[in-house]
Structures are given as C-alpha cells and as structure tokens.
C-alpha cells in the first residue's frame, strides 16, 4: 500500500511539474513580443559577410537586402532595429542563447533547422549553384569528385557537399569564397546563385556556373525562437504587408536589381 501511495504521489508530482512547466513556457512565449515592445528595439542577426544581401560598407555600417527588410519589418511593428553581426556557423546557437531576437540573414528554410527554430517567410527564393573559373577543365558535376570545393561554414551548401562526398574547404563568407576561387586555392565554389552572381558582377570576377547541377529553388526565411506565436504572427504580418505593396520591390531593385520573391 505504501509503495502504491508513493508511486501515485510521484506520478502526481511529475504531472504537476509538467503542467507547471507548460504554464511557464506559455507565459514566456506570450511575453516575448511584449518584452521587445517594451524595449522598443528588435535585435536582428546576420553574418555581415554575404553581399549584396548583408555586408559592411566603407562607413562600417551593415547594409544590404537583409538589413533593409529587417528594418522595414521593425518599422511596421513600431520598433527600432539593432543589427548584430556574428559568425554564420554559430548564428542559431546565438539565437537560442538570447543574444538577439531574430536572424534576418538569408537563412535557407530546412526541416532540420525548423526542429529548433521557427521561421517567418520566406522573403525570397533562390537556387544552389556551383561556379568555376572561366576556362576551367571542370564543366560537369561528375568532375567535382576529383575537385576541391569551397563552401561557407555552417551553410546548407556545406552539408550538401559533404553528403556528395566532395573534398571541401570551409570559409567565413561569400567574399572569401570568391577570392579563393580567383586565386586557385579551390577548384569550384557552391553558393546561392543570386548572391554569387551579383557579387561576381560587382567585383568583375569571370566565373561560370556548372550547367548540369540539378537543384530546386529554396526559400530564405527569418528565424526566431520557438514558442513565440505572437512574435511570429506580428513579423509575418509586417512582412506580408511590405511584400504586398511597392516597398519590397523598391528594396529588391536597390540591392539585387529585381524581384526575387
């Protein structure tokens, strides 16, 4: 009888702790948007090394498509924005550690990432591309088996390249990738096609895409901590509104030269 009562007591205790935990989590999630509004500032993170989507200009200011979108979302929520730059391979960890409130940094929406963060968006779409120098002997994906491929550490392109069994070298961002390919330290690079093409055009690189790469379009989204439906809803509504009027196209034309929805 004593053992049975002890077991029942333990079961009730566990259940009570579980329910209390749910209540705490629900309260926290409901309060996160309120906390941001009280501060009047939303902190958004990006690498600062992904031109023209986000990069540091000559005035040491983070500019580009991503900060412009993030700033406009904040404005429509009645908030100021604080932009934080951080290494891409640890950017989700920083979000979970509450170092910032959202990631607005051209993050590809994937099932694996969606297990640990929630996404707002997507706010643009692109495809994977592999580039080599013009005149390179590498013209097909089959030849990548014997090549060295440059990728950004922590990006989905790194995971993809490892799955293919390619020999890779990892870098902090797109500018480094382009320089490494230009100087012949890698044979090819894998990156989002739009960002790479625009950066190559701006910097005068003569690179070409491998044409037989089979890839589907994927969306870039804004990552936030899970369990914050009010924040997610408010950000999604602001994003939908700016994408529905001329604001999105104005931003896109300025930074990437056209509509990329």
What is the number of beta strands?
Answer: 13
Distance between the first and last residues' Cα: 66 Å
User: Class of the largest domain in CATH?
Assistant: Alpha Beta
Average pLDDT level: 89
Q: Helical segment tally?
A: 8
User: Which geometry do the CA atoms define?
Assistant: globular
Keywords: Signal
Protein name: Amino acid ABC transporter substrate-binding protein
Organism: Cohaesibacter celericrescens
Pfam family, one: SBP_bac_3
Give an account of the 3D structure.
- The protein has 261 residues and is α/β, with parallel strands linked by helices.
- The protein folds into 2 domains: 30-126 and 218-255, Periplasmic binding protein-like II (D-Maltodextrin-Binding Protein, domain 2); 128-209, D-Maltodextrin-Binding Protein, domain 2, CATH 3.40.190.10.
- Helix content is 43%, strand content 26%.
- It has 8 helices and 13 strands.
- It has helices at residues 2-39, 65-76, 91-96, 156-164, 174-182, 193-203, 229-244, 246-255, and strands at 41-46, 49-50, 54-56, 62-63, 80-85, 102-108, 117-126, 128-133, 148-152, 167-171, 188-192, 207-209, 218-225.
- Strands 5-1-6-13-7 form a 5-stranded mixed beta sheet.
- A hairpin with a 5-residue loop joins strand 3 and strand 4 (62-63).
- It is globular and about 60 Å long.
- Residues 1-30 have low confidence and may be disordered.
């Amino acid at each position: 009888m004593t053992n049975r009562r002890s077991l029942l007591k333990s079961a009730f205790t566990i259940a009570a702790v579980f329910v209390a935990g749910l209540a705490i989590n629900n309260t926290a999630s409901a309060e996160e948007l309120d906390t941001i509004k009280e501060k009047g500032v939303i902190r958004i993170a990006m690498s600062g090394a992904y031109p023209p989507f986000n990069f540091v200009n000559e005035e040491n200011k983070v500019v580009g498509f991503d900060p412009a979108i993030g700033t406009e979302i904040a404005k429509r929520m009645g908030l100021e924005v604080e932009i934080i730059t951080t290494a891409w391979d640890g950017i989700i960890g920083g979000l979970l550690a509450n170092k910032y409130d959202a990631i607005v940094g051209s993050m590809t929406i994937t099932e694996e990432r969606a297990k640990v963060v929630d996404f707002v968006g997507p706010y643009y779409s692109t495809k994977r591309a592999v580039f080599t120098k013009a005149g390179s002997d590498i013209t097909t994906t089959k030849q990548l088996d014997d090549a060295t491929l440059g990728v950004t550490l922590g990006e989905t392109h790194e995971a993809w390249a490892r799955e293919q069994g390619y020999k890779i070298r990892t870098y902090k961002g797109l500018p480094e990738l382009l320089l490494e390919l230009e100087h012949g330290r890698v044979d090819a690079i894998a990156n989002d096609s739009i960002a790479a093409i625009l950066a190559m055009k701006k910097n005068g690189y003569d690179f070409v895409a491998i044409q037989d790469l089979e890839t589907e379009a994927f969306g870039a989204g804004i990552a936030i901590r899970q369990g914050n439906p009010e924040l997610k809803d408010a950000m999604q509504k602001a994003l939908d509104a700016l994408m529905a009027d001329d604001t999105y196209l104005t931003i896109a034309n300025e930074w990437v030269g056209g509509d990329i929805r």
